[in-house]
Write a structure and sequence with these properties.
Elements (H helix, E strand, L loop, with lengths): L1 E6 L7 H14 L4 E6 L13 H5 L10 H9 L2 E7 L7 H9 L4 E3 L2 E2 L5 E8 L6 H14 L3 E2 L11 E4 L6 H20 L4
Parallel strand pairs: 1-2, 1-3, 3-6, 6-7, 6-8
Antiparallel strand pairs: 4-5
Helix pairs in contact: 1-6
Bound molecules: flavin mononucleotide.
The site of flavin mononucleotide (FMN) has 17 residues, from helix 1 and strand 6.
Length: 194
Amino acid sequence: MKVLGISGSLNTNGSTAYAVQHALEHLMEKGVTTRYLTVAGRDITPCDGCWACRDAGVCVYGGDDMDEIVDSMRWCDALIVGSPVYFGLLSGPLKIVMDRSLVLRTGDERFEMTGKPGAGIACGGFRNGGQEMTLKCIQTWMLIHNMIVVSDGAPFSHFGATIVDDARSDELGLKTVRNMADHLQAVTARMGVD
Ligand SMILES: Cc1cc2nc3c(=O)[nH]c(=O)nc-3n(C[C@H](O)[C@H](O)[C@H](O)COP(=O)(O)O)c2cc1C
């Protein structure tokens, strides 16, 4: 089983990076193959809606730093996306990545992420700061990619993993991260992926 984790924060040492890597390390301990990517340090041109990918199957801006993310989304069996909460929503750099992922979903029969389980992690500075709305943004993107959206699983099972303030000291939040990772692995395994 191959799980990709994407941090949607420009902060390479912040809560989002930590929480996404925490999920991947938890999965690696159970024998899962993982790959970690971050939006930080990437030069990604925003989608301008030209729709050239619909006919060509490639983006006119292909060749920039989005290529590795697209390749990794093709590579993975399951996907974890983390975002900091910015004004109650996901981060801008992550939204640019989401829009550029259109090349994987160009219509008709071409929905390359079909059936892959996915789950989110939202890291906010405050309780009720918009973590649920941020998770909904991530899940909406996954649904439009024809993916299977996964909750944070038992024993809590709500909308995904949530962090309040510094992830390193949010024990309950990190438990939702590990629960989510376990649930994602279980759902992916039930689909017959080793
Ligand atoms: C522009 C901006 C907007 C933010 N808006 C919110 C918010 O609406 N709700 C919240 O809980 N935290 C908000 N925060 C705090 C961040 O979500 C929080 O510090 C988070 O841990 C940052 O993630 P990072 O450590 O991965 O960078 C905001 C931070 C910034 C910089």
